[in-house]
Specification:
Elements: H1 3-18, H2 22-28, H3 35-41, H4 46-65, H5 75-78, H6 86-89, H7 91-94, E1 98-101, E2 116-122, E3 133-138, E4 143-150, E5 157-161, E6 170-173, E7 177-187
Helix pairs in contact: 1-4
């Protein structure tokens, strides 16, 4: 793989997994501002790529040392299910093991701000159905609800798309996702 492309992918991975943008990386590695942009515009640098790999490995080690599994709570454990419960009345709720609130307007009109969205956890990302809506949780704690599409330029990445036409596609590496839930229901506020 060419150095520039590998460098760009590694920068994306560090940003999504650890929340470190280019300016933060430059500060922590004692480089001048915009150094990374200059290196990329010149086609990349093997020496800088090696330093960035070491940096990513250190971040992974630090995360492993401080890691605690923050599993999302199942709505079943927080909701008393009775015979007449709403959850028991509707089949699409039965197999859901995660519920979250949507924030923002990127998925309108399908999912409105403050909507309740439930999903079923995927154990393997090879079961992704492109063009469907998923709740995606990254290792850095970020969570989003988007349509998922394949990235034609990178087999290791996915493109996330909101339902509005003017919403730009967002790239994310598969390896930066900690959990993925297939959206099964939406309850929009009145």
């Amino acid at each position: 793989m060419e150095v520039k492309k590998e460098l760009t992918l590694l920068l994306s991975e560090v940003k999504f997994k650890y929340g470190k943008d280019r300016r933060t990386i430059e500060k922590e590695l004692n480089y001048s501002p915009n150094y990374i942009d200059q290196i990329i515009s010149k086609g990349g640098s093997g020496k800088f790529l090696e330093k960035l790999k070491e940096y990513a490995n250190r971040l992974a080690e630090m995360e492993e040392e401080n890691k605690f599994e923050e599993a999302p709570k199942s709505y079943r454990s927080t909701t008393k299910l009775t015979q007449d419960s709403l959850w028991n009345q509707m089949p699409q709720y039965w197999d859901c093991d995660y519920v979250t609130y949507a924030v923002g307007a990127h998925m309108q009109p399908l999912i409105q701000n403050n909507a309740l969205v439930g999903g079923k956890r995927l154990e393997d990302l090879s079961f992704l159905v492109f063009g469907e809506v998923y709740i995606l949780r990254a290792f850095n704690g970020m969570e989003t609800i988007r349509y998922v599409l394949p990235d034609p330029a990178n087999s290791q990445g996915l493109l996330l798309l909101g339902s509005k036409d003017n919403t730009p596609k967002t790239f994310i590496l598969r390896s930066s996702l900690s959990q993925v839930f297939k959206a099964r229901f939406v309850i929009n506020p009145l």
